[in-house]
Sequence to fold (219 residues):
Amino acid sequence: MLRVDVTRQLGEFSLEAKFESQGRVTGLFGASGSGKTSLINMIAGLLRPDRGIISLDDETLDDTAKAVHVPPHRRRIGYVFQDARLFPHLDVRQNLDYGRRMNRLAADPAQFTRITELLDIGHLLDRRPGQLSGGERQRVALGRALLSKPRLLLMDEPLGSLDEGRKEEILPYLVRLRDEGIPMVYVSHDAAELRQLATQIVMLKRGRVTALGGVKVLT
Fold:
């Protein structure tokens, strides 16, 4: 279970968010500037709350009252950005292996095969990112995050930079990940996208949670 109860001042913008999630895919929904990315950056440990608590599976990641802050690399949380952020000088195989090596995990050939088959990227392993389509790059970024064996996957508008055709290409893979039972926090301002993927919705507006529940809150 993910538990968030935080406040953070960011210039003139203030973020106050409180929710608990046991859903497989928690959708953070709101317009640009509502605080979605700042919130998942706090969950990832990239941004510290001014006040509050973040916990995951009964482990405290942040507790400002007790001066607890687990650094990002020790949280076992995967993060997929909007722009994939692959290393251009590495081929797909090396990009996929990066998360595992950074987390000092033993090689797991069976897991590598399973993830590459799940995302249909096995035929891309010898290519460089510059030789991939936008959809292929996002699938590789997903694979890299999954191969670090995260207990939670954060996704910040992973389809936001793709055209409609590429979005339709990627969505089935995201649904497959959801059905595999991998917990996700999925940021989007696209209600239709979240209706297909999310099992729980946290709606943000101007830094405040305005609704919490199933996908019906999007109607």
Remarks:
- The CA atoms of residues 33 and 186 lie 16 Å apart.
- DSSP finds six helices and eleven strands in the chain.
